[in-house]
Predict the structure.
Amino acid sequence: MAFTNNRGRTQTSLSEINVTPLVDVMLVLLVIFMVTAPILQTGIQVNLPKTATTAKPETPKQKSVIVSIDKDGNVFIGNDTKKPLNVKTGEFSAQLQEALAKSQEKKVYVRGDGDTPYRVIAYILSECKKQEAQVSLVTEPETKKN
């Protein structure tokens, strides 16, 4: 498309895209996703024990199974907080088998509260071993005191 200026000369239009607004919008979206991503991964409130070495779950695209146990001994798979799974009736075992069948790798990350009864964690570890899954206990890093 051509334009005529006030002197009568013909000029062509500028057909390049202005990149500055695009970069601004992309940076804002990046900041929004960086802030919201950690919030989306935590659904069940668990006070993790602190250790020198830690194992953190991989990104959700890895499709690992995350088992959370709260301080009352309630067991959850993933971020489903609707109702805890019943350990005694075998409901957990069936749900774990189903979750492992859907996952790409047979990895289970156990997020246990520091006040969780040991018998519940031992049962969870036993069930994971029955399913031949690789198990990692998720903890928080210790803070160094000076």
